[in-house]
Design goal:
The chain is α+β, with helices and mostly antiparallel strands and 289 residues long. Strand 7 and strand 8 form a beta hairpin. It has 2 domains: 94 residues, Immunoglobulin-like (Sandwich); 165 residues, Serine Threonine Protein Phosphatase 5, Tetratricopeptide repeat. The chain contains 10 helices and 9 strands. Helix content is 51%, strand content 19%. The strands form 2 sheets. Strands 1, 2, 5, 6 and 9 form a 5-stranded mixed sheet that branches. A 4-stranded antiparallel sheet has the order 4-3-7-8, with no helix packed on it.
Amino acid sequence: MYLTNKIRHLSAIFLVTLIIVVWGIISSPLVGQSKAKLEGKVLNINKEAIPQAEVQLKHEDSGQMFYFKSNKEGEFSSPSLPAGNYNLTVEKEGYKSYTGELKLSPNIIQEIKVTLVNERADEQKREDEAIAYFKKGTELSRENKLEEAIQAFQEAVELKEDFFEAYVNLGAFLFQQQKDDEAEKVLLKALELRPEESRPKEILADINFEKAKILIQENKMDEALERLKQSYNFRADHAYVNFLLGYLYHDKEMKEEAIKHFEAFLQLAPNAPQVKDVKKLLESIKKTG
């Protein structure tokens, strides 16, 4: 058909919680008692004391709970405890908490050191790694190694889920590799992060435009129209989206819509090779109106 022939001439232009538990046994017996005792220190990764860290012990057999806090030197000392197996939790606001197991032996003071990692340090490491993958993906794309670049950008968004720029680049290169469905999903995520940004909208408009052209060639005009409408919603100034919308609305005898989009096409692409034909058709539509 005429529209199908027109289509043929359009080119598609941070750290896991670092817990260092050092076990040591102090030889001081708890004389005359079948009791145990736990002492220790809570530190950050720079070996600095963490005061007011909450230490919690749960005796596995009895379910008894014991609570105490570290002092300004990061040190803590439990009361006398029943010997046995315990679940240990160490928490401090702003740090990743630690949970683990330990066994306290009768008549022994047992000592541990717990190193907690600041939550921000964990986030910072992941962000640094994401940026490194982003830079790698950019370099690979410049070398035209698009599949490797795509993998690098995927690593970046997995490490940093709000990495807008990585989503946009990933979507763009997926689109270049004709992975339209994957590209569309990624770019919609980018748009969710920054609804006001134009770049993902532009690529989404192109994706829907290319899908519409394929549907027109398959004579699936209603589906093509829906894709073009989506494209237009993302980018109303896409000249050839308006061009195809004009023809599809003309075929459906929707004159006002056809005129609107043909006139937009003429304004957006005044030097396009299709201008002459569009002007003639537009004149004819208006005369019959």
